[in-house]
Structures are given as C-alpha cells and as structure tokens.
Design a protein that fits this description.
The complex is a heterodimer of chains A (688) and B (331).
Chain A: E1 6-11, H1 23-33, E2 39-45, H2 51-64, E3 68-73, H3 76-89, E4 97-101, H4 103-107, H5 113-132, E5 140-143, E6 148-151, H6 155-166, E7 171-174, E8 189-190, E9 195-196, H7 197-210, E10 214-217, E11 220-228, E12 231-238, H8 253-257, E13 261-263, E14 273-275, E15 277-278, E16 290-291, H9 297-301, H10 306-310, E17 323-329, E18 331-334, E19 339-340, E20 357-359, H11 360-367, E21 388-395, H12 410-424, E22 428-433, H13 443-452, E23 456-459, E24 462-466, E25 481-487, E26 492-498, E27 500-505, E28 507-508, H14 513-520, E29 547-549, H15 559-579, E30 581-584, E31 589-591, H16 601-605, E32 611-614, E33 618-621, H17 631-635, E34 641-643, H18 648-658, H19 670-675
Parallel strand pairs in A: 1-2, 1-3, 3-4, 6-7, 6-18, 7-10, 18-29, 20-27, 21-22, 21-27, 22-23
Antiparallel strand pairs in A: 5-30, 8-9, 11-12, 12-17, 13-14, 15-16, 19-28, 24-25, 25-26, 31-34, 32-33
Helix pairs in contact in A: 1-5, 2-3, 5-18, 6-7, 6-15, 11-12, 12-13
Chain B: E1 2-6, H1 17-30, E2 32-36, H2 48-51, H3 53-70, E3 76-79, H4 82-97, H5 99-110, E4 122-125, H6 126-134, H7 136-141, E5 151-155, H8 177-184, E6 188-189, H9 203-206, H10 208-224, E7 229-232, H11 235-243, H12 245-252, E8 260-262, H13 263-271, H14 288-292
Helix pairs in contact in B: 1-13, 3-4, 3-5, 4-5, 10-12
Classes of the chains: A alpha/beta (688), B alpha/beta (331).
Chain lengths: 688, 331
C-alpha cells in the first residue's frame, strides 16, 4: 500500500474523556473501520500529553514509518503544539499532525456513554480523512521592527516604556493629556503603605521624559494603525499646544499671568481651577504648558495675548496647527486605563444636587497638599471642616443597574479615605460597605488599622442620601445629609446624619475604548475592558498578534498590578525584538489569480484587513496579517481563494469523515438531522 | 380626537371625584376621548396580589379581558390611578413572561365566558398620555391663565416610574417630566427631592405612626422648600396628604398647611376653567389661599388664613465648584 500511513492516538485524559467515552472501543473501531483509509496503528493512553505518551508517537513514527498522526484528545487550543512538537522531533513535518477534540466537544458535553463513543468515532474519522489531504508546511517568518508604541502615559504605560527603553529599544509613548502620569498623579496617598503618590510617581515620569530611547507624544491621539505584527505603521496626531517647545523654558510666567480661570474637570476632578494656558500640575512631564483655545480670551474675543507679551523667550505661537506624524513599530502596548464612574447616574445619592456629596476623586484632590484646598478636608463652602463623614462603597459597581463587576480598588481606597479624614480632622467616620475586599499584601492589616482608629464600619448598601428630614429633630440641625442604610449586621434600618459624603466611584473603560479596540483589531468584553488572549496564562497579550495590553485597560486593578502588567508586556515584546524575527503559523489564505475576477468581496469581509486589490497587480493576501479564519474562502464566488492547511479537499474530507457510516448513534442519528426528519433511516443510508 | 379605553378605578367615583371632574373638563381641549370599560371591577388595590397572587391576577385579568373584548378600535388602556395602572401592567407583563400563568388566568376567565391574550392591551398612565401623545407643546398652547407665581411641588408618588415593567423611563428616582408638564402651565416648579417617595399607602390604617411619619416627611419638605401647594397624579397620594394632614398635625403637634391638588385640576385652571368646575374647594386642606395669591378666586366657604410658608432657602454662597448636572432628557 502506497497511500499515507496514519497513526491514531486516543487519550483518556484521566477520566475527563474515559469517564464518558469508551476509548478502547474508539481505538478498535479506528483500526478496523479506518484501516482501509490508511490507519495502520491505533492506541489509547491515560495521558497522551505526558512525555511517555509523546514518546509513543515518536516511536511509532520511527518504527512503523507513519507519515500522518491523529491525536484524539483535548481542544487544539490546549495541546496542538505539544503533539506537533513530538512529530517534529521524530522527523515528521509538524503540520501532518491533526489534533481532534473529543473532550471539549464530546466527553464534556455529553452524558450518554454509547452516543458519546459513536460521536468520538465520527470525530476521529473526520480527523483521519482530513489529515490524509494535509501537505507539509513551513512556518512564516516576519522581521520585527525594534520600536514599540505605548498608548497611554499612566503608570502602566510608563512602566512598559521604561522597561523597553532601558533594554535599549526605542519607544513612542502617546498620551492625550498635556502631561504623562495618568490618574496616579491625581492621588494623594497610595494604599496600604500611604506612600505619597507623587513622590513615587514623579521620578518615573522624569525617567520617561528624559530617556534617550523614549519619544513622548503628549496632547496627542493615535488616529490610525495599519500593518501587522513586526511592522505596524501608526499615525499620531499632535494637537497644537500653541507653545513652541523648542523655545519654552517651562518658567510658568504665562500661566501665572493668564487672566482666564476655569474649572479643571480633568486633573482637579472639577473641584479646582486652572488657567487658559496651563500645566495640569507643577511636576508635569513634559514641562511645557498647553493653551486651551476654548477658554483662551484671545481665541474667544480676539484680544489679550498676555501670555505672548510676557513670555521671556517668545514661545507662544497662536498660529500653531495640528500636526500628524507616522511612526513604524513592531509591537503595541495598549495602556489606556479607566474613567471614573459618573456618580450623577445614581440619582438616589444626590451627587450634583447636594453640595456636600463628593466623589472619591474629588476627595483625592482635596486631601492632596498640592490640590485646591491645600490638603484641608472641607465642605463645599471651602471653609467648614466636617464633623462627620460617610464613605459609600460600590457606587456604580456590583450593581445590576450600572456595572455588575467589582471595581477591585475601591474598598482599599475607601479605607484610605477613612484614614485620611481621621488624620486631618476630628470627624466621626462611617464606612458603608457591602463586603470588605482586602486581598492584597498588607491590605487586611490596613483594614484592621482603620478599625482600630475608630472608624465605624457598617455593612449595608446605602439606599439613599437625602437632606429631607423625617422628623423635626432627626438630624440635630438643618442642612446636614442623612444616609439611609440597612445595617445588615445589626438587622435594622439606620438614618445617619453626616456633614459630608464621599462616594467611592467604580472604574469604567474609557468612553472611546471600543473605538480604540477596533482601530487595533482587538476585542472588548461586554463591559468594555480589553479581552486577554488567555485570562490566566496569557494575561497581557490580546487576540491580535503584536498588540499587548496593560493596566486598567484590561479591567480594574491597583498600582502594583498595573506596573507588573506593563513590565510583563515589555518582557513579552523584548523576547521578540531580541529574536529579530517571528515565526507565524503558515495557516493562510492564498488567491488563484487565474480564477479571481477582482470583485473585491473578500477585501471588505476580511476581519483583519489582510486582503488588498490593485488594478494590474490583482488580489493579494498579506500573510502576516492573515489569521487563517477562512471567511474569504467561503465568500469567494469564483472559488479562487484556498487556504493552506484548510483546503476545500481537506474540509470536504473531514465532513465525509464526520458522516462515516455507523458512527453517530442510530437513535439520534446525524442522518436524521441531515435529512431534516425525525425518522431514523438505516445508518447505511448515508453515502460514505 | 384620539380615543382610548379607560379604566377609572374606584377612587374616581369616591375620594377622587375632583380628579374625575377635572379630567372631564380638559378632555375636549386636549383632543382626547376616553371610553370607559363596561362592567369593570376592582383592581385589587395593594393587598390582593400579595395575599393571593392567582386570585389577584385573575381579578385584574378580567378588566384586561373586558378591555380586549370592547376594543373600540384601540388597544391602549388608560388608568388615572397609579395603583390601578401598576396592577393592570403587572398582570399583563407577568402573564406575558409566564405562559403558565396566562393559561391559568384564561381558565379562570373562561368561567365568565372571557379570554385575554397577554400583550394585546397596552396599559398606560394618564400622565404618559398627556406627555407623550398630547405633548407639552400642545398643552402649553391651550394655556389661557398661566399659573405664574404659583410654587408647585411635582409629586409623582412611588408607583408611576417603578416597577418600570415596559422600560418607559430612564430616571426612576428623579424623573423631570412632571416638572416639565407643570412648567408648561406657567407654574414655578420646586425641585422636590421626594418626587417619587412613598406617601404611606394604607399605612395610616395599619401603623398610623409610620403613615403619619411618611406624610409628615413630604409635607415638611414641601413647606421648607416654600411651596404653595403640591400637585399629584395619584388618588392615593392625594388622599393621604389631604385627608390625613390634620390627623398627622394632631399626632405630632405640628401646624402644617400644605394643599395638594390633582394635576388635571391645575391644567384645568391654566386652561381657564372656573375653579368650581374642577372640584377645587372640595379638598380638605384648602388651596384657596394659595390660589388667591396668584389671583384665582375660589368661591368656597372661607377657611382660616393659612400660616405663612417658611422663608425660602437662601442660595448657597461660593465655595468649591459644583459638578454640573448636564443636559439630560427629563424622563
């Protein structure tokens, strides 16, 4: 016999498969019924993925001269590489190995042993018939450009950029605000150690700003990303600062003299002011200010130009225009962080109506010595120190009306608020929590400490914050807020009068997160957070090769995790850059020019933008962008596109195998499904 | 002329006669025709559905079945009472979600030769009809005597926006649509924090202390905000605040005087109807003084002069900036 010589290996996966599927029967069936189709050996083994299991395959290839292998085990996502590796070591082209899933698609989804066994046989038959049509393939190799794009200049992005730059490779760090630093720059203290956030952040900001390998693009947006892993082309829009950064010394006279004063909704969270030309905070990196044309008197009324007149170096340039630059990078790190939940959406908490209801970010700015109150904790009148403060947890989080998820950082953040209120004032502090979640290093100790400081911890979700009294003497005096809450530990309703309420708002993805994800060809969960390639084993990679994510872009997390993510993404990228090139799966589409009519249907359908058409050149598939999904192949009206590793012949052979006579249990026969009728014809009625 | 099926509910022929009368007076200008369901029965109030779910739903389903049979070329059933509205909407919704319940209800209805197909009747509150179908512009266009200078509390009560079975509202705690309606009449609308708070329901009968506390909370907040009167869309709310205000005052030793009128009465006044045609003067806590302040004479037996409303709140001085509430739809 001169045809392919196929070996079939059926895995027990302990009892994962063998508990439902009769693996010995599948083995015998394969040898007997698929013998005419080239199966020369069939074996079963408790754990095919073990070294001994792999050696079985290697030995058979050497001794029996196998030139095709089918492993019936788990999903190819798990162990395809393992078995291809075993074949490769035995000298067989790895792509002549086929892994068929009888665990995820058979034993884990069925309970009827007999039917599951028949289905496993059909799946094995599909694999055998398909692998016969397989051809040897070689992996594609693409060069990797050494530069990296980091989107987002918060602590995650800064960490990734510094790791890459310190290793000697160029980085483009893009930030839409005038300064890098992100939300961490707004904070006062960090939990649980109470380090001053600015004291630990600003040295890293300075490192990033001064690093010879890092190019900062602040006040900028990524507007377009094209290309593929190893060779992305990125268009970055520099919004006009109206300041010539070559001349500006960062002296701050313009900011000091600017007569326009506006509420700063970004850095000061709306409780402080900035000027029309401003740096968001003194340690901003870069040091150059930004002129905000919407609040500039000159742009509004055509007169003023105070900044221009007073600038000692003549750096103000009202004529500056937006500027676009294009950079070529090999990899991308998405570190776009979060936006705080808009507390106005929880109408029962009165944020925006009651002056003395604050958000946790407003509190951070208030408590910060560099903030609008110089670090004094005061009511909205800017003067009165509160005598009692309620801190409300889970605002917008763990709430089916808003976000179902836990925002992870707010319990610790709230405890920190409690501590800071106690430190700065004499106030009585209430923490109103659902569950206290303090799982990090030193977290629970901090929780204990805050309890020892005398904070009142009340377990219950706050129903309402109101200034409406139920009884005349309820609140002691007029003008205080009342927190209505069910104290679930005491088992009673409480109405707690306080002077000030701090709402611990949850974290949400940036409002344009989906747009950015679409630009990068990656996916977001229904909540809007970036989906990891694998939530546990590949937590900073995305489904698109060459695009990584770090920090809160992936979901709510604290500063140490964000830093670790940034470093992890950098490590993944450094490994690739140091290799110089990347091996890609050769599972790709290719076009038969002779049959292509140039209709371009495939161009629009390709989800990865891998297919292009040019008059004269015809239709081309970029092998580095193509992910081998097969959409174009199915859609091509002329049948001009075929897939390496999934040709029509292979697909049809596999379908034929799945319909192999005598496999699917007759009582719920596939034939019946195919015929679209409830009656059960003889298994032989299906054409083989 | 838009025609609707109409389920008046028991209170409109009893405690809320003023609601029925004032509604009748404004139908023509608004271009609405209401066709009362023949032989309708009790909606079960707040108790029956809790005590006997199947019995309660069957009681309500009979009204829906009668409405479906009567038809009259419309499938919209209007309820002026918030409790009737919620009960009718609940039965329809639950029967839609649970075909088993629908079948059992039809078994029960079959005994009376009736049948109801869940979802065939759209249940809506009178307020929705005025705001959505007639529209604020059309209402404003009929205003002959703007209620300028009258400080009115928009009190919606708890049942109109919750449970929002058909997702008609985006703001369940603080909807502003009733404010807009009253503003369209020219009234000065108070930003009332308790607009969807509970009036106490039947608590005055079950636990008077609780009931009076809840009534007091509303009346006290309205007085503190300097309101002349409260406007409501619910007969239950109206009765609690009107009929039990004196008893509440005795209970707490307080002296509140806060009239409450149906929104239809205020619409009628703004449209120029004479107060007596709108049932004004039949309320227990008299609105005479409040209306007299804007030049509307109510020819009813004189009441003792009401105590002056407490001073209006002073505006807060400057301090840290407040977050803006932004432009939102008012629903």
């Amino acid at each position: 016999m001169t045809g392919p010589r196929v070996g079939v290996y059926v895995c027990h996966c302990g009892t994962n498969i063998a508990g439902v599927v009769d693996v010995a029967a599948v083995r015998d069936w394969a040898l007997e019924r698929l013998g005419p189709h080239g199966v020369v050996v069939a074996r079963d083994y408790p754990f095919m993925c073990s070294s001994l299991g792999q050696e079985l395959i290697e030995k058979d290839i050497a001794e029996l001269g196998l030139d095709r292998v089918v492993v019936a085990a788990c999903s190819p996502h798990m162990h395809e590489r393992t078995f291809r590796g075993a074949c490769g070591r035995a000298g067989l082209n790895p792509y002549l190995c086929e892994l068929v899933s009888i665990r995820e698609q058979v034993s884990w989804v069925h309970t009827d042993r007999d039917a599951a066994t028949r289905k496993a046989e059909a799946v094995v038959a599909g694999g055998v018939l398909r692998v016969r049509e397989q051809v040897p393939l070689e992996p594609l190799r693409v060069p990797i450009a050494p530069a990296t794009l980091v989107i987002g200049g918060g602590i995650a992005g800064i960490s990734a950029a510094l790791e890459l730059a310190d290793a000697g490779y160029p980085v483009h760090l893009v930030e839409r605000q005038p300064s890098i630093g992100g939300h961490m720059a707004q904070f006062d203290k960090t939990f649980p150690t109470l380090d001053c956030a600015a004291c630990i952040l600003t040295p890293r900001m300075v490192d990033a700003g001064m690093h010879p390998n890092i190019t900062l693009h602040t006040w900028s947006e990524v507007v377009d990303v094209s290309g593929h892993v190893g060779a992305f082309s990125v268009r970055i829009l520099h919004r006009p600062r109206y300041v010539d950064t070559d001349l500006c010394t960062g002296c701050g006279i313009c900011e000091e003299k600017c007569p326009a004063k506006v509420v700063d909704p970004v850095f000061e969270s709306g409780i402080g002011y900035r000027k029309g030309i401003y740096r968001p905070f003194p340690q901003a990196v870069p040091k150059y200010p930004v002129l905000d044309p919407e609040h500039c008197i000159y742009f509004e009324r055509g007169t003023c130009r105070a900044c221009e007149k007073l600038c000692p170096t003549g750096a103000i340039d009202f004529e500056q225009q937006p500027e676009e630059v294009t950079v070529e990078v090999g990899n991308i790190v998405l570190a776009t962080g979060f936006e705080p939940f808009d507390a106005r959406r929880v109408e029962a908490y009165g944020y925006g109506r009651y002056p003395n209801v604050f958000t946790s970010l407003e509190f951070e700015r208030m408590s910060n010595a560099a903030g609008p109150t110089g670090g004094r904790i005061v009511l909205r009148d800017g003067q009165t120190e509160p005598r009692s403060v309620a801190i409300v947890h889970c605002v917008g989080s763990r709430d089916r009306n808003f976000n179902p998820y836990c925002s992870a950082i707010c319990c610790m953040q709230s405890l920190k608020v409690a501590h800071l209120v106690r430190e700065h004032t004499e106030a009585t502090v209430y923490e109103l929590y659902i569950d206290m979640r303090t799982p990090g290093k030193g977290f629970d100790e901090f929780y204990q400490r805050v309890q020892d400081e005398g904070t009142h911890l009340i377990r219950g979700r706050v129903a309402e914050i109101t200034d409406v009294l139920r009884l005349p003497d309820e609140a002691g005096e007029d003008g205080r807020l009342i927190v209505q809450v069910e104290d679930t530990l005491a088992g009673r309703q409480r109405r707690i009068p306080v002077d000030m309420v701090v709402l611990s708002v949850g974290l949400e993805p940036p409002s344009d997160a989906r747009e950015m994800a679409r630009r990068l060809g990656i996916t977001c969960s229904s909540d809007g957070w970036v989906i990891e390639r694998h939530p546990k084993l590949d937590p900073v990679a995305t489904m698109t090769d060459g695009v990584f994510a770090a920090g809160c872009a992936l979901g709510p997390r604290d500063i140490p995790s964000s830093v670790a993510n940034g470093a992890a993404a950098a490590a993944r990228i450094l490994g690739r850059i140091s290799q110089g090139e990347l091996a890609l799966e050769p599972i790709r589409a290719s076009v038969d020019e002779a049959r292509c009519s140039g209709c371009r249907i495939c161009n629009d359908l390709c989800p990865f933008g891998a297919i292009s058409f040019e008059r004269g050149r015809g239709t081309e598939v970029d092998p580095a962008l193509c992910q081998g999904c097969g959409v174009c192949i199915a859609a091509c009206p002329a049948g001009a596109i075929s897939g390496t590793g999934f040709s029509d012949a292979q697909i049809l052979a596999q379908i034929e195998g799945l319909l192999f006579p005598g496999t699917i249990h007759p009582e719920a026969g596939l034939d019946a499904v195919v015929a679209g009728s409830a009656t059960t014809p003889e298994p032989e009625a299906v054409p083989a | 002329m838009s025609a609707y099926l109409f389920y008046p509910g028991c209170s409109l022929s009893g405690s809320a006669k003023a609601y029925a009368g004032s509604l009748a007076a404004i139908l023509d200008p608004l271009g609405i025709e209401l066709r009362e369901i023949e032989d309708w029965n009790c909606c079960g109030a707040s108790e029956y559905l809790t005590l006997s779910p199947l019995g309660g739903h069957a009681l309500v389903a009979r009204n829906l079945a009668l409405a479906q049979r009567q038809g009259d070329g419309t499938r919209t059933l209007v309820a002026p009472c918030s409790l009737c509205y919620v009960n009718l909407a609940k039965t329809d919704r639950y029967a839609r979600d649970d075909p088993g319940l629908g079948a059992r209800l039809n078994d029960a209805l079959g005994a009376g030769g009736l049948t109801y197909e869940p979802g065939s009747i759209a249940v809506r509150h009178l307020l929705e009809i005025l705001v959505d179908d007639v529209g604020l512009e059309a209402i404003a266009a009929h205003v002959r005597r703007p209620l300028r200078g009258l400080r009115v509390v928009p009190y919606l009560g708890c049942l109109v926006t919750r449970p929002d079975l058909d997702r008609r509202w985006t703001h369940h705690e603080r909807p502003r649509v009733f404010d807009s309606l009253l503003a369209a009449l020219g009234a000065e609308v108070v930003d009332f924090p308790l607009r969807t708070a509970c009036c106490g329901g039947h608590m005055t009968q079950i636990s008077p202390d609780t009931g009076f506390t809840l009534i007091r909370r509303l009346v006290d907040a309205a007085s503190r905000l300097g309101a002349d009167l409260m406007a409501t869309v619910c007969p239950m709310c109206q009765m609690n605040i009107d009929a039990y205000q004196a008893e509440m005052n005795r209970h707490f030793g307080s002296h509140y005087h806060m009239p409450i009128l149906f929104f239809t009465q205020l619409i009628g006044l703004a449209f120029g109807s004479p107060p007596e045609a709108l049932g004004i003067g039949t309320e227990i806590v008299s609105a005479r003084a409040a209306l007299g302040r804007i030049g509307i004479e109510v020819p009813a037996p004189a009441e003792p002069e009401a105590a002056a409303a407490p001073a209006r709140r002073a505006k807060k001085p400057a301090g840290l900036p407040m977050p803006s509430l932004g432009d939102e739809d008012d629903r």
